[in-house]
Amino acid sequence: MAGKGVRGLTEALKSLNLSSQACREAASYRIPSTTFTRSMATEVPLPKLTTTLDHTVSNLWRPSQTVSVTIFDFPSYEPKRLEEWSSKHLHLPLRRDILHLAVVYEGDNTRQGTASSKTRFEVHGSHRKLRPQKGLGRARVGTKQSPILRGGGKVFGPKPRDFGTKLNKKVYDLAWRTALSYRYRRGELVVCDDGMELDLPEEFKGMVGELEDELVDGFRAKWVKQVLDRNEWGRSSGRSTFITGARRNDLFDALDLVPKYGRALDVENVDVKDLLETGRLVVERAALKELIARHQSDLVSNIYVHGVKPPAPKSGIVVVE
Amino acid sequence: MRRISRLRGPSGLRWSTSCRSIASLSSQCSVAKAPVSICSTTLTPSPVAAASSSRMYSTKPDSSTLPQSLGGAKTHVPQLDIEAANEDPHSAETEIIAQESWDMDAGEPNEYTSQTFQPPPPRSYAERTDEIRDPSYVPATTVEGLSTLGGLEGWWDRRENWPRSSDFQGFIEAKRKITHPDSLEVATRRALVEVLVRKARGQHLTEGMPVGGKEELLRALALDLKVKENGEISLVADDSAIELVAKDLDWENVLAKEELTGKVPAVPTLLPGEAQSFKEAAQWRARWKSASLSEPKLKFAVLKRIFQLTGQRVQDHQLPGITDVLSLLRTIKAPPKPKTLSQEIMERKQDLVQLPNVAFAPKRVTRGDKDIALGRFKIIEKELMTRDVNVHPLSVGKSREQKWLKGQS
Questions:
Q1: Could you tell me where the Polar residues compositional bias lies (chain B) (predicted)?
Q2: CB contact, 8 Å: B303 with chain A?
Q3: Residue B56's pLDDT band (cuts 50, 70, 90)
């Protein structure tokens, strides 16, 4: 009995030893194909592997830690620079479940929850008995606030309440970067240089004071339509969401006039749902940095080591200028 | 009997009830301070006027500014005022025509003469009925015969008010995205040559380049390329040829030339047919496609130029996959993904459509479609017409609520 127990223990230890190896090391534990023989005659012999695996650390494939991001000029759409951003910011795998959690969480928390109806105790009026209990040949009734009567109270009606749900911050932050990564990988993330504003022609600016509102709006609408169509951002290309660091009056006002071409949001008003909605995101560089900085709690530890907080992954390093 | 048509009251106008002269009325209006008129002295357009909307991308090496978030001290300044001399020769003519057509109130010189966008003329007001001195005047009682003037609706959609030269011009020079493989190959070759010319001259690679006409295009394509075993690429041409192409890429030179001869229409690349015959005639060395693009700066500059010439943008996530010209061509030549399933079947799976036992319809086949196909709908239509019911097989009548909302019983 004892011998069996000891054998069992050694076996268990052996298996532990194997499984604790990293993948690259496990290769050496494999039985070489030359020594392996098939038990059945009908089976095809194994192909002879002649390739030798190089186990040195430098030769191992590792996914890139950074991704390239082109920074464009706005509204000309001229590529200005190439930058490197952390793949933990813009190249996360798509997790639909996490995006769903985030969108539902946002939806729950944006519900106003002010629907309210009156119960029989809140409906105004006298609580007098409407008619005698007996003798009239009619159904017995109490007060006119009774829920069975027209104008009476509601039995289980809505009352103001909070529909908000909770989501772990790290999950929500991951959803933000997953949404951005999804856009990046589909080529739907256009990062523009700081100071993103719709440049209206100088001649028009000179005319503004003289023109009627109808003409000013008409001009702005036409100009922004031309800009978007030229850059393939407009209605025929599935609208665009413009995200800037702060409200830019010309851009925001112009886009308000042509809602079918796109919408503009400042950093404070963006949600995960907004990131997933239109055909593409046209984001100001500073705004993108801000969005990522606000949503990387799962990457940056709160624990200080030697009095210093561990740094976040670096993004926005200029490669080509 | 003379019928004098009255001008329709503009929407934004506050009509004065007091009986004052027309002149004083018109002076109340803010727009009237700048009446549109024609004046021979004001016809020369100022050179700055049209420049703002012509080229909005950078044309000088020092114009690139780093954003504040990168630590750059300078803030973003839109590069608008660079080519003061870039004036369309036709814009002056258009302007004259536009002004003449709106020469309703010849008086003060026009403030807008130097502008390409044409604002409406100041309002003029019809005489009040009780002030008309013409004894033969009889007020119109019906609308027939009166001329319609129209309002400001669609003002900017008329080309005389918004000339083509004032349209927004972004970085992409191609009017439409170029998709033909031959044209793309020519454009790629051109981009590569031009970037190499800049490199050979020790200039900034990634700055915006002028596009130029066909002459410039052919001059760039005439330069030969040589690729070494390791993929390194270099120009094979004498210095004078390189010098000529370098001149074509020099903004100062191009702008000076434009000032002298007028703007030549940009030719970003050759048309598909031309490109094919050109390629065959040129006999480029086969190995030019194996030229390495591993140097980030070179790759960025080439991609930028291709984007400008063809509108084909290589997405950021595709950048690591582009290591040589061949992979670049493969990426930009790839046809765009079809937007709908029916598009995909019609374009790429014709064998499916042509199967004898398969019927293909781009939209769902409904009950009504079947009725029409069978010819049954004609009978149904007739019967419906006699009963005064909506005729279309699947149409739903307008909702009653719509009527109520409009207050129609």
A1: 44-68
A2: yes
A3: low
